[in-house]
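Renewal narrative, Specific Aim 1. Our central claim is that a sequence can be written position by position from structural information alone. The example that follows is taken directly from our test logs and has not been curated for this report. It begins with the structure tokens describing the chain, in the order in which they were read.
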């Protein structure tokens, strides 16, 4: 009888500990939320150097939270605006972000921004050529945001698709339906991804610069 009761007591202890930690965890998240909001407010009008707008940042945040994504990859960090929004969302889903930047100056500035925002612990920022690094990443990923050299979008997609989970999203910045008529740069990427039977592509509402959202479905 005693041997049967002990595991139940042990399990009850774990449940009680988790319940007791609930308010503490909530307090930590609330503190982080306040820090990130304050950071974004301070830098609200200073994001240049190929960063996304605040509206696009919010779109990225909502995508991650609503789908519960946890394993994210960003191709093109710049100085960290989009990465801040993505990592903030990941702090709520229990995920992490790998972000890639080729320019050392932007990379160093992004590191400082991630630290100031309180999000450095959720981000693995890497310096180097994304064309080379993406091929070496094992994945899997459930969310990818691409905002690098537009002519390379198709190559990035091809390299990351085998590592993108079913249900995952490949979001591409500065891509709109108007590009279908173009056969170069991001237009080449768009024509390619829209012809993949296992990818469902739409466009983010509220993004004036354009953002395509391609969700991976099970291949038939």
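The sequence written for that structure reads:
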């Amino acid at each position: 009888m005693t041997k049967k009761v002990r595991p139940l007591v042990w399990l009850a202890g774990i449940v009680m500990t988790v319940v007791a930690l609930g308010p503490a965890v909530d307090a930590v998240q609330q503190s982080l939320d306040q820090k990130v909001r304050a950071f974004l407010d301070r830098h609200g009008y200073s994001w240049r150097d190929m960063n996304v707008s605040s509206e696009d940042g919010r779109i990225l945040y909502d995508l991650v939270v609503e789908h519960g994504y946890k394993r994210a990859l960003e191709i093109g960090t710049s100085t960290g605006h989009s990465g801040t929004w993505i990592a903030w969302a990941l702090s709520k889903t229990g995920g992490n972000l790998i972000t890639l930047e080729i320019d050392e100056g932007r990379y160093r500035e992004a590191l400082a921004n991630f630290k100031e925002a309180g999000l450095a612990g959720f981000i693995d920022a890497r310096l180097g050529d994304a064309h080379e690094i993406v091929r070496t990443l094992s994945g899997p990923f459930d969310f990818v945001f691409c905002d690098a050299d537009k002519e390379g979008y198709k190559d990035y997609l091809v390299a990351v698709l085998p590592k993108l989970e079913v249900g995952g999203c490949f979001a591409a910045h500065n891509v709109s339906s108007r590009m279908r008529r173009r056969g170069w740069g991001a237009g080449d990427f768009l024509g390619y991804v829209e012809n993949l039977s296992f990818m469902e592509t739409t466009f983010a509402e509220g993004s004036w610069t354009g953002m395509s959202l391609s969700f991976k479905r099970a291949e038939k």
